[in-house]
Amino acid sequence: MNAPDLSNALTRVLLVEDDPADARLINDALANSTGQIYQVEWVSNQVSALKYLDTLAVDVILLDLSLPDAQGLEVFDQIYSVAPNALILVLSSANDEALAREAVQRGANDYLTKGAIDAHWLPHALRYIQDRKASQDAQQDSEEHFRAMSDSSPLGIFVSDTQGNCVYTNEAYHKISGFDFEQALGTNWSMAIHPDDRLRIVSEWRDAVCGHTAFQAEVRFMRKDGTIVWTRLNAAAMPDGRRSRGRVQTVEDITERKAADIELQLAREDLFQEKERAQVTLNSIGDAVLCTDIAGNVTYLNQVAETMTGWSLAEAQGQPLSDVFRIINGATRQPADNPAQRAIAENRVVGLAMDSILIRRDGIESDIEDSSAPIHNRDGRVAGAVIVFHDVSESRAMAQKMSHLAQHDFLTGLPNRLLLTERFSRAIGQAQRHHKQVALLFLDMDYFKNINDSLGHVIGDQLLQSVAKRLGECIRTTDTVCRQGGDEFVILLAEIERQQDAAQVAEKLLAALLVPHRIAGHELHITLSIGISIYPDDGSTADAVMQNADTAMYYAKAKGRNNYQFFTPEMNTRAIQRLSVENNLRRALKQGEFEVYYQPKIDIASGIMTGAEALIRWQDPTVGLIYPEQFVTIAEECGLIVPIGRWMLHEACRQVQAWLDFGLQAVPVSVNISALEFRHLNFLEEAASILEETGLAPRYLELELTESILMHDAEASAQMLEKLKAMGLQLAIDDFGTGYSSLSYLSRFPIDTLKIDQSFVRDIASNADDAAIVSAIIGMGKNLKQRVIAEGVETREQLAYLKALHCDEGQGFLFSHPLPAEDFSRLLGTRTLVSKPAA
């Protein structure tokens, strides 16, 4: 079963933290998480935590090991003792990581460093750890299911590696051998064999291994308490092609049958005098017994033999043995040698051939084992033969099933990752010998979790089985489809001539998945994102090729899903560069490397400064000054844009208030708001809180938003804008004209200012189309009673044109470059014109 997905489910969280600031940070981070609902209960000491856990169950415990009433590992031990099933994450400072790691060794699921926690990262990290725990629990359930199934078998099971050393035993084996699992683990399979039998049996076992044949034997076990148990051993290899991963042995307690064999032997000796007593004995044992005369005609069947052959004794007597006892070789389906004839001819006990199958009179087949021995008369001469056999269908099927389960996915029946890795290694060797290539396709089902969440895991599992079937229909018999786990699959294409062969398979897979899956009355549509990596071009090892295919798959996701991408080295380079920028951004936010620059806005008619736009800059200690276009996109992707935007809004408000407090005639400052900030659950409350903290009057703050942000959900945007306007803030549409907006909504939005995008201003004096657009925007703004600002004003020709069109304001290098706060304050202090407009 795939691990349960936790998105959109209520997760109960107990936060045990005595620092209110840390508690508030964590609570806000979880409360604002998207796609996952967290119900957080905060307590500040151990006593309160234990009292809460005594009455209510929780899913997650965020635990500080330094509390007012308890310290260190004692805190974890107490909490773990009352909530062993909860997911426990230790909250650690940078100086206490050693203590946190020790808590993990005692049972904590992981630890988080307080200084690294932020609003975006914490929910993602928490969800990742929840998913990991769910996967571990599912794996444990699967292992318990496997053990429960094997423990229900009446046959002892002993799984060994290629050297014959134990890796698994079941309950039946423990009962037969007298050794428990810990005592047997790692020991050689021959440990339990009676010392007098061991040398012979080990030699026979080695011959079977070297000859790649099955192994069977009857042997005495010396139990731990010294008692002796007769057993029947059957060993089968766990093959993968021509290789063996070890062997599965079944151990059957045949002590009672051996005792019956002794009785049978006595019955043979006294057959002529005590035929009646022998008949009772033969019918009382569990094995089938069949006797022939020296000519090979049937003379006797016991009741078990009658059942297994389908012949009654009366019908079988006098019939040729080949008619009554029809046996074939299971591997070749050809008639097997007659064991009775060999026993008579060679005057010795003869074992049945391996893989012998008995065909009953009505055609039903059963696997059998055992032997034939000659029957002697009073003079010691061979007078016939007796065949003793029994049904071993169950034990053979169990051995085969154990071998299959060890190498295949339980849900889909596909090879698992262990088997894939072995086949990949073999495919690499073949590719090297034949000068061919090997392709690995990493597949992820797009939006599978949505189906799992809405329709349940039963439907999700059936969908996985349906997808697995279609994937198998798209490849050659020499290729391998593997279920990697969850909704991920891997396809191994052995010995391809060129990369295009892998592309053709990928296209075939995408086409096969376009047909909807009909499951339990639902018509389900699913697509694939496929990453392709080629050996030897993209890696010299199976792990390297697998990792690169995984990387390419994520690029397929980023390209819009339902497509395939070949791995390129640039993918790793970009991933490493992006990770470096992301890590540096986190450092910059923590160490205060960001700065706010201010660019003035000018009244075109008078040349007087009317406002300013706040622009962020990153002063990296190594690289130097970095502009927004170099890091904003990455900040948005990794979730840092919200805390960075919050910092910038706070800093701009703080600076304007500082200018006012200093006695300067400050102008309103506009701040750009990203889509993630605008749609954040607490954006409205945080904006109000920043104004309250800095003491800035709302009329000094203008928020700039793009058309695409507002039109993403126009109704919700209109409601949010009304609330912001009610707070007294000024509102502007930035880069106007570059996006798509509905005029009906534009008239409804409480917008104060339209900012004409600089791409239209750049060629306004030479491009009639741009001039027409600018003129239209100015006219529309005036009709809607909105001020219009032209961005990117760099020449006096542009300024003159804008003045002729009666544009209200301008912003650009012609007036001033963006300036640090200290330099901008001088402009405020002089109250001089930044640039005198042309007359």
CATH topology of the largest domain: TIM Barrel
Strand content: 25-35%
Helix content: 40-55%
Described by the principal axes of the CA atoms, the overall outline is: elongated
This entry's quaternary arrangement is single chain
Spatial order of the strands in the main sheet? Answer: 27-28-30-31-32-33-34-35
Average pLDDT rating: 84
How would you sum up the major sheet?
A: 8 strands, mixed, barrel
DSSP strand count: 36
The CATH class of the largest domain: Alpha Beta
Which features would summarize this protein structure in a list?
single chain, 839 residues, Rossmann fold, Beta-Lactamase, 5 domains, 8-stranded mixed barrel, 32 helices, disordered N terminus
3D structure, described in words:
The structure is a single chain. The protein is of the alpha/beta class and 839 residues long. The protein folds into five domains: 10-145, Response regulator (Rossmann fold); 153-253, 2-Layer Sandwich (Beta-Lactamase); 256-393, Beta-Lactamase, CATH 3.30.450.20; 407-567, 2-Layer Sandwich (Alpha-Beta Plaits); 580-829, Alpha-Beta Barrel (TIM Barrel). The protein has 32 helices and 36 strands. Strands 27-28-30-31-32-33-34-35 form an eight-stranded mixed β-barrel. Strands 13, 14, 15, 16, 17, 18 and 19 form a seven-stranded antiparallel beta sheet that branches. The chain has a five-stranded parallel beta sheet with strand order 2-1-3-6-7, with helices on both faces. It is elongated and about 140 Å long. It starts with 9 loop residues before the first strand and ends in a 9-residue tail after the last helix. 36% of the residues are buried. Residues 1-7 and 833-839 have low confidence and may be disordered.
